[in-house]
Amino acid sequence: MPQSLEQLFALDGLIQDDEREIAKAVRHFVDERVRPHIAEWFDTGEVPARELTKELGELGVLGMHLDGYGCAGLSATTYGLACQELEAGDSGIRSLVSVQGSLAMYSIHAYGSEEQKQEWLPRMAAGDAIGCFGLTEPDFGSNPGGMRTRAKKDGEDWVLNGTKMWITNGTVADVAVVWAQTDEKVRGFVVPTDTPGFSAPEIKRKMSLRASVTAELVLEDVRLPASAVLPEVQGLRGPLGALSEARFGIIFGAMGAARDCLETAISYAQDRQVFDKSLASYQLTQAKLADMALELGKGQLLALHLGRLKDSGTITPEQVSVGKLNNTREAIAIARQCRTILAANGITLEYPVIRHANNLESVLTYEGTSEVHQLVIGKALTGAEAFR
Fold it and tell me: Acyl-CoA oxidase/dehydrogenase middle domain: from which residue to which, for each copy (predicted)?
């Protein structure tokens, strides 16, 4: 009797009952709400983001790892397992949840005023308001400290000018957390998207994350009151802290995409007949499946270990980089190898493999490229910074 991937590594025994039940609920949501439509959303490049956000809020996954203000206050590991199930559906759906909860909501929760928290977090947790996170710029991705977006004081107000790029949820967002240079340090601003001078044109013609809204943010003399500033943080520590939260979700999420590819490849190989016997019965196919299962299992074990470290409050940014680097790199390798097992069928949207592979091209580089994470790990090992 064939074993499931979970049985091969006995993963279920490492997950608590409440974590398992929530992961199961998210998997059910993905099966019912995402899988029947995801190929069409990817094909057309259109996704019902507002409708899905409301449903995800009702499911309880938006900001689920935050405390209070309508958030569920669940463990980091539980959040990670939810990300794994969401990304098994599609990276774009997990990105929607990650940007909402781990970037926009987290920034307000960790660095915001009580007024900002009360105004935005309950609505965002319920899915009634969508958030985005404006850090990356057209010329500044891996080096956010070089950002050109500026905020200048004008009396009691702030006036923002600049451009942000590759912003998930941007076009549909009700609020943007925007990071800008000031005369002192980088500061964060809570920007309602109906503020005059703010616009968010959607980025089209993507070949990756097509079931996700991606925008440019344009700020032209956007005037904000003093109360729009995130008061509890100055400098790059703020946005980098939020990015570490988002990277944590990716560590689990990438394994969801890889798992979906591998389960698809195993099922396909068992059914596909080649020279009068199943493709799965050939040694080369089994070698591919065995190697991919090893990398998937190791990645899932690493994710669970890092989840427990995060829940204990002992995880470090370098450890998050280890997880993000390994799991995204292995996930895209698994997706590509699974495509070879499906052969020509692997390039169609009738199967999820090429969609996951295309999505993982983005997941590999956003929230820190593989090269940046290699340098983070290298600095941790040697004490020498090699970023410049």
Answer: 132-222
> For residue range 11-58, what is the model confidence (pLDDT) as tens digits?
988 999 999 999 999 999 999 999 999 999 999 999 999 999 999 999
Fold of 237-382: Butyryl-CoA Dehydrogenase, subunit A; domain 3 (1.20.140)
Classify domain 5-126 by CATH architecture. Orthogonal Bundle (1.10)
Task: Of 64, 177, 167, 57, give the one whose Cα is nearest residue 116.
Answer: 177
pLDDT at 368: 85
As a whole number of angstroms, the longest Cα–Cα distance in the chain is 80
Please choose, from the candidates 179, 171, 242, 174, the residue with its C-alpha nearest in 3D space to the C-alpha of residue 212. 171
367 is catalytic: yes
Domains in the chain: boundaries: 5-126, 131-228, 237-382
| 134-182 residue pLDDT tens | 999 888 777 777 889 999 999 999 999 999 999 999 999 999 999 999 9
Looking at domain 131-228, its CATH architecture is Beta Barrel (2.40)
Q: Which residues contact 337 (CB under 8 A, 6 or more apart)?
A: 265, 288, 291, 292
Q: What percent of the chain has pLDDT over 70?
A: 100
Q: Name which of 324, 326, 329, 335 is nearest 262 in CA terms.
A: 335
Residue owning tokens 């990398």 = 295
